Amino acid sequence: MKPQPPTPRPRPMRDALLERIAEAMDHDPALFFVSADFGSPVLDRIRARHPDRFVNVGIAEQNLINVSAGLALEGYTVFAYAIAPFLTMRCFEQIRVSLALLSTVRPMNVNLVGVGAGFSYVVSGPTHQCYEDLTLMRALPNMTVYSPADHATAAGLFDACVDRSGPKYLRLDAQPLPPLHPEAAPLPPGGFYTLRPGRDLCFVATGYMVHTALRVADRLEAEGIAAAVVDLFDLSGFDAAALCARMSASRAVVSLEEGFRGRGGLDALLFDLRARHALTQPMLNLGVEGGYRFELGSRQELHEQVSIGEQAVTARVRAFVGDRQQD
Q: How many independent structural domains does the chain possess?
């Protein structure tokens, strides 16, 4: 019997991406790393090998943005690293002015690496959790937004960060997630993966919620409902025609995000896409319901409380499909 390749183990997204950066910095003197007092073992290696191209600005994310912009104007490709809510919300004006605005008149390459998407810092409460970043970063017309669902995609995005000019935001989960894609495989050019087909409905999910979509799709399949699952990791440069074709191949669409529902995140992107391309499939948008919550619990427990857990999503989608069948 031919030996099977080992199953990839779950790894933190940040480690997979940082290892790509560390390897590239060994031979590319144009790469620069800036951190806001946030570390990891891989980052320690970068700092030790390249002290002349590593800066820790301290707990000063606003300064992180301005230092990164200055380095980019000098010709460096910059990776700026911080906890996601502090990176996106604490210094939104600096991102808008020093990156989004300035990049319209000066070439620059700054890659904002935010760790802690959604509820991934589950025990730290709403100050460290991040439900608004997709809305904020998507509001900036010059900002590329990446939201990978596993470490292989996160590592693969390094090439896009280096090759594509302009400011970018990488939304990384803080927890190791099950691998969905092969190690070192090239990313699809359209900005999304189709993980499974399905004629009855199409889940379009991003980040952690891709894993929930897959589990819900398994549940629905047992009930005779065939659900496609799309992993949309590029929320700004995806192939709109290809995504519309994928959505049109199903009778209905469900958006699924670990962010506030109806607040300008993934669901707004898809509603706009649906209107621009005159798609006729009904769409259900699922995201975090309600406001900020201070309860402690596992990520799965918190997700059920805010209506994006596996059971809650299954119930909502089952009712949605049932309504469509009665029409």
A: 2
